[in-house]
Design goal:
Strand content: 5-15%
Shape: globular
Helix content: 40-55%
CATH topology of the largest domain: Rossmann fold
CATH class of the largest domain: Alpha Beta
Distance between the termini: 8 Å
């Protein structure tokens, strides 16, 4: 099961930023009469990028959302999110060690995330792990969010192009995910999936090839 390459999701896999995303969404949406519960967030919104999350909130409320208003809301959320994460974030147990071990074994790494690049880069720099990822595909890079496979397809293609001596389109490339939408996205891109139960119980992640309670357990499968 030794992977030829590994593509990490970000929120819910590397750091527990989902509560921060939820908090900031509510700060923006509640004054507009469109707030929702944490359960609704996990059932519906988790896995969406900001574009689709705002679209869904407005659709559910039966309100129109222009492209200009959408861009304003996305910029507002990005600014508020950045203010929160500058206070520091904590990685999930085992993830930094896994990233370093995979890199030490010469396994190419990438990120495929529905978050904005401005959300991701400050955290990677805080954790001092940005250098381990050859490519970082974000919501800024693809038009569709997960469960559409666009972001994983792009990350896979970039890795294959960057490592022609190691990778082909048929190489064993694993995605590490924490949501049903993310698993569907990775599977749609032809990837194998290791799922961690950071955000959902194992029974919600049944399409994954491997399920672990913590990335501390994933090393025994990969290395």
């Amino acid at each position: 099961m030794y992977p030829d390459a590994v593509i990490f999701d970000f929120d819910g896999v590397i750091v527990d930023t989902e509560p921060i995303h939820y908090q900031v969404f509510q700060q923006i949406l509640e004054p507009l009469g469109m707030g929702y519960t944490w359960q609704e967030y996990t059932d519906t919104y988790m896995g969406f990028d900001d574009r689709d999350a705002f679209r869904e909130a407005f659709r559910t409320a039966g309100k129109e959302l222009s492209d200009d208003t959408l861009q304003t809301l996305i910029s507002q959320k990005a600014s508020m999110f950045e203010q929160v994460v500058t206070q520091g974030v904590v990685p999930y147990p085992g993830v930094v060690e896994l990233i370093k071990e995979l890199s030490a074994h010469g396994i190419p790494l990438a990120i495929s995330s529905g978050a904005l690049r401005s959300d991701i880069l400050p955290i990677l720099e805080q954790l001092d792990i940005k250098r381990y990822f050859s490519h970082i595909v974000t919501a800024d890079d693809v038009p569709q969010s997960k469960p559409h496979p666009a972001s994983y397809l792009k990350a896979k293609d970039l890795l294959v192009i960057s490592f022609p001596a190691q990778l082909t389109p048929s190489s064993l490339i694993y995605a590490i995910e924490d949501t049903p939408a993310g698993i569907q996205s990775a599977k749609g891109a032809g990837l194998s999936v290791a799922a961690v139960t950071n955000s959902y119980p194992a029974q919600k992640l049944e399409l994954a090839d491997i399920k672990v309670p913590s990335l501390e357990q994933l090393t025994k499968y990969f290395l």
